[in-house]
Specification:
The chain is 37% helix and 16% strand. It is α/β, with parallel strands linked by helices. It has 2 domains: 121 residues, Rossmann fold (3-Layer(aba) Sandwich); 104 residues, 3-Layer(aba) Sandwich (Rossmann fold), CATH 3.40.50.12500. Strands 2-1-3-4 form a 4-stranded parallel β-sheet, sandwiched between helices. A 4-stranded parallel β-sheet has the order 6-5-7-8, with helices on both faces. α6 crosses α11. The termini are far apart.
Length: 260
């Protein structure tokens, strides 16, 4: 057996560098397969860091199950790099944000992280629609009917006209994460109406980023998805531009249409 030397403290005093990276927090569902991957198609890893925690969640995706996350949000937010300043925290669930309420989500998260701006996908979508000049939308979701109906009501309350609302009838968000690009495109084309200004693809689980450009080319109008809107809004709050080539007309807006 070899001799173990006495451990000594190094004579070097470590120098701690200040970070120029913007730090974001993300609260994802325990079952989320999509949000983190989508983030790095929009945010620059050279300028941003994303710290992720998970909130317990059980399928099926019904209004009742979504509402059960409300009392769990504070504890989830409390796990996000304690003692480190964050520019914003995103709660990455569109349907739960609608069911619980944007303000209630923000209150729960800010109990753990006071003063940190909270981004929810539906509220970010409202900001995106405003930036794009969209007033009449087609709503397409992967959800059940009973989960999609509150979504349509939410956007109507926020002043949008819902020209058409259709859903794919899935109850498990892990299946929603596996919907093919072709199916997403076909669903939007089937739901689109001539009098709609744009389309909202709801659900942070839905892998919509990869097909947004193709849909916009096909239907000739803007398409906004949950993750696209959320990370666009987070970049705004940081005063940052998204990665070049980030999908959709939303990211091709002039800088004069972006607020910080």
């Amino acid at each position: 057996m070899s001799t173990i030397p006495t451990v000594q403290r190094s004579p070097i005093s470590p120098e701690l560098e200040s970070s120029a990276v913007t730090r974001f927090g993300l609260i994802a569902l325990a079952t989320d397969l999509t949000s983190e991957r989508d983030a790095w198609q929009i945010l620059s890893a050279d300028r941003a860091a994303l710290y992720v925690t998970r909130v317990p969640y059980d399928n099926p995706t019904t209004p009742e199950n979504l509402a059960r996350m409300a009392p769990r949000l504070t504890a989830a937010a409390d796990l996000l790099v304690p003692g480190i300043d964050l520019t914003a925290i995103c709660y990455s669930c569109t349907a739960a944000s609608v069911e619980i309420g944007d303000a209630a989500v923000a209150d729960a998260i800010q109990k753990a992280r006071p003063g940190v701006p909270v981004v929810t996908p539906p509220d970010a979508a409202i900001a995106a629609f405003s930036a794009l000049g969209i007033n009449r939308i087609v709503l397409v979701t992967p959800y059940l009917v009973e989960t999609t109906e509150p979504m349509a009501a939410y956007f109507a309350r926020r002043g949008l006209e819902i020209v058409c609302a259709q859903c794919l009838g899935l109850s498990d968000d892990r299946e929603m994460a596996r919907v093919s690009s072709a199916s997403i495109l076909d669903a939007v084309v089937a739901a689109d109406r001539p009098d709609a200004d744009g389309v909202f693809l709801s659900c942070t689980a839905l892998p919509a980023l990869a097909v947004i450009d193709a849909i916009e080319e096909r239907i000739g109008k803007p398409v906004v998805s949950s993750n696209q809107a959320s990370f666009w809004r987070m970049a705004q709050l940081a005063g940052q531009s998204p990665l070049p080539g980030a999908p959709g007309r939303l990211f091709r807006l002039s800088s004069t249409n972006r607020s910080t």
